[in-house]
Specification:
Elements lengths: L11 E9 L33 H8 L4 E5 H10 L9 H9 L2 E4 L12 E4 L3 H11 L2 E5 L2 H10 L4 E7 L19 E3 L4 E2 L5 E7 L11
Parallel strand pairs: 1-5, 1-6, 2-3, 2-5, 3-4
Antiparallel strand pairs: 6-9, 7-9, 8-9
Length: about 220
Amino acid sequence: MSADKTEDASGRILIDLFMTLDGVAQGPGGVGEDTSGGFRFSGWQAGYPSPGMGAEVDDGMRGLDALLLGRRTYDIFASYWPQHTDGPEGHIGRLFDRVPKYVATRDADLALDWQGSSRVGDDLAAEVAALRAAHRKVHVIGSIDFVHTLLAEGLFDELNLWVYPILLGTGKKVFDDDALPSVLRLLQPPITDEAGVMFLRYGRTDRVPEVGTFG
């Protein structure tokens, strides 16, 4: 097996997250997006404009041919993007509306009304393998609770982080104590805009951290 997962011939699972410098990825896009646990900073990304990162987000969407989302993020997307297929965000809205959408949930009776939506979650490892076989670029956007599962089981190929120079001190972190010990590989030089927001793109490898002592 290749040490660099981005070199595999199969499709890739790409995790895309906006996060603060102290690792918080909860509720970046709106004040009511995710206030669970009493989180009072929902909307922190929207409150800190990043003039240079839009192009990086758009570039990352090129080649996207499926979405894999947690339940909460799916509900947010389904209520927003079908109504935003025109205007400045229209190209993203049309893309998300068109591609297959896979929703990670244990609720077998969940109604998935957005066109092209289906459920996964019975056997995640097997289902992710099937998604890699069926698609070239499957993007996991937001979905922080679901991302914790993917990181714990090593079920991803790329980790794309937009890091904001903000400290919140509270909220759901990208990396919890269950993340699989891994060595990631930086795939391109970091990109920083004038607001201090940095884009980091990593690939997963088979390497695990090693320990030693400086002599």
